[in-house]
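Extended Data, panel c. Modelled sequence:
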Amino acid sequence: MKAVSDFIPLLGAPVRQDEGHLIKEIASSWSVTLPEDFIAIAGAYGDAVVSDYIYFCGARTLRRYADGMGRQLEASRTVPHVVLPTPGGALVWGNTIEGDQLFLVPRGGGTWTVSAFRRGWADWHDTDLGFSDWFHLALTGGTATDWLPEWEPLPHPLELNNG
């Protein structure tokens, strides 16, 4: 499990002032406990576009994105999960510029793993990785996928969305 400090070489200094408590409030309103690494990293870097490719929800947009995009995805035959705020649902936490939707899926015992609806393939892609491990590998080109780009030299540029 990675910490916010592990993302400083990849994303620069945190762009948010520890907004994790706001994400915890959203999760509480949905009656779920999200992974601490997601809360910390989204609280430090959320609501930003990473390298003009990955949109990463944070405290300002997480609820609105889940309510809007989550409803659409929940109706899709390709997404095999209900989506928060539906009880027991997966968290849709971002997307790529290609229209791939990024999720955290509850696996029981407090474990959540990253999965994606890959628009270009019209399929569902599961991983066995938690958020921070997957995100770190994704941002360093360390994932064995052909649906993420080859990145420019680090750190990734961030474009903030203040929602």
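The beta strands are 48-50, 54-56, 91-96, 101-108, 111-118, 123-126, 158-160. This feature is highlighted in the accompanying rendering.
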